[in-house]
Every structure is written in C-alpha cells, then in structure tokens.
Amino acid sequence: MSALESPVWLLLLLPVAALLGYYLWQQRRRSRYAVRFASLPMLEKLVPERPQWRRHLPAGLLLLAFVALCLAAARPQVDVQVPRDRATIMVAIDVSLSMEATDVDPTRLEAAQQAAVAFVDDLPDRFNVGVVAFAGTSSVVATPGLDRTEATDAIRSLQLDEGTAIGEGVISSLDAIAALGRRTGAEEVPAPVVLLSDGTNTMGREVAEGVAAANRAGVPVSTIAYGTATGTVEVEGQLIPVPVDVDALADLAEATGGEAYTAESADQLDEVYEDIGSSIGFQTEQRDVTPWWVAGGLLLAMVAAFLSLRWFSRIA
What we know:
The strands form three sheets. A six-stranded mixed beta sheet has the order 5-4-3-6-7-10, sandwiched between helices. Strands 1-2-11 form a three-stranded antiparallel beta sheet. The chain has a two-stranded antiparallel ribbon with strand order 8-9. α4 (about 110-120) links the parallel β3 and β4. It is built from ten helices and eleven strands. The chain has helices spanning about 15-35, 40-45, 55-75, 110-120, 150-155, 165-185, 205-215, 245-255, 265-280, 290-310, and strands at about 5, 75-85, 90-95, 130-135, 140-145, 195, 220-225, 230-235, 240, 260-265, 280-290. The radius of gyration is 32 Å and the shape is elongated. About 35% of the residues are buried. It folds into two domains: about 5-80 and about 285-310, no CATH class; about 85-265, 3-Layer(aba) Sandwich (Rossmann fold), CATH 3.40.50. By secondary structure, the chain is of the alpha/beta class.
C-alpha cells in the first residue's frame, strides 16, 4: 500500500482502538472478580484447563477484521509497473578523444558502442530511438524512429574527434525530439535523453543552457559517467590523464530530473543500460486495491466466528 485516496476514513480506527481498550479492561476486571470470589483450589476445579490464547484469538481476529475494513474505506492504492505505449529515446554518446582511453577494455568508446547497441536492440519495438554524437560539436547521426538498424549502424560508425560539447549534445537531442513531434503531429509522449560521457564540457554552449532547454521541454536527461579516475590517453608520445567527471554529469541529471549513473567497466555499463531500459519501458500507475482489503477483513471476521463457535459454542 503506497497511498490512500480517502485517508479521512482512517478516523474509523478510533472506535476500533476504543473497542480494544474496552476488551482489555473487561479481561482485567473479570480476572479481578474471579480471584476475589473464589479460592484458588476451587478455581482449578471449576475452570477446565485450556490454552489461554484461545480465549483471545477470536477477539483479536475480529479486531484485525475491523482494521482491514477501516483501511478499505480509505481506498488504499498501490504502485504497479505497466508497459508504456510509446516513448522517444535519444541516446547521446561522447566521442571526444578521451574516449580512446583503455581503462575500459578494449577502449571506452568501443565498450560504449557495444553496450549502446544492446540497449537499443532491447527497447520495445514501439519506441522511437535516435542517436546523437558529440565531441567539439554535436550532430544527430540517427534521426529518431522505429528503425533499429539505422540507430545501431550509427552507433557502430562513431568516430573520435576533439573537444567535449556536452551542452551541444543535450540541445541536439532536444531538437531531434521536437522535430519528430512536428513531423508526426503526435501528442506529447515521454522523451528522455540518455547521455554517456567521460569528461567536462570544454566547447560549445554551456551545460546550463542545455539544462534550461531540457527543463523548458520537460525532458529529463539521465547521464552515465563512464570510465575510471585513472584513465589516460597517449598524445604525441605522452600519457595524458583523462579522469571521468562524475560530479558534472550527476549535476546535469539532477538539474533536469533524470538519473545519474556511473560505470567503470563494460559489465557495469551493461547493467546501467539494462536498468535505464527497465525504467523507460515501464511507467508507475496507482491501482485501487480496496476489494482485497474488504475481502481480507471479511475473511478474518469469518475465521473469528468459526473459532468462537468451535471452541466456545457461541459467535461472540
């Protein structure tokens, strides 16, 4: 149970609590009178030996039934995961020179390509998928659509270039989503961006501009900080450190309402994409489970009545 549609009905629990208090008071009062008017040897002869818990079980079950029925009156709701009918997914991949680092086998880029292809292939067929590549600039290398071959071929064909324009990558993804909406005339559908990078924005528009544009469009950007803190690339015979900038990418995701992920290996990246796919492919809806609580309350009441008849030859 995750929510109550009419929580005011929980006030019915107050009489239930009062009933419980009255029952406990009656049991204490009965014990006091029994001890006052009968000697212990006489009580042992008059009262048959039986488990003490039997006296209280029917009453306890009946009180639980009242609680269940009070909760049913409050219209309990639960969260359930249901498949989305449609969505548009933009996969934005960093192709800056730092993606040539070999801290992820065989290189950051090659491992990212393999994982992204698997991610696209596993998305529901009814989802549109597009691909953006960004380095010093950004470009839409596969327009969003249902054709998985176009998207996977574009991912496999990615080439390294200089610079890291994360802000441009976000804005290009948003432009592609908007263009698809104009082309199809479709009503508003979920359209998240999944952006993989290992670095800090060094060229093009600032990340803040991308954040503002994403918020205006209502598009969350989930980020994957890919690589390790010890990554290096060789430039003119020298090893240049290219540590992944986890904080910058996490800030981007948080500012747009997306999720921030990190991956330091190909296996971890596969797991991240799998998690993203499951969250994108389903949406959370609330379902009314009132009948279940009503049924539970009635079942408890019937069990209480049966036990009372079975053990004491009376319902109450």
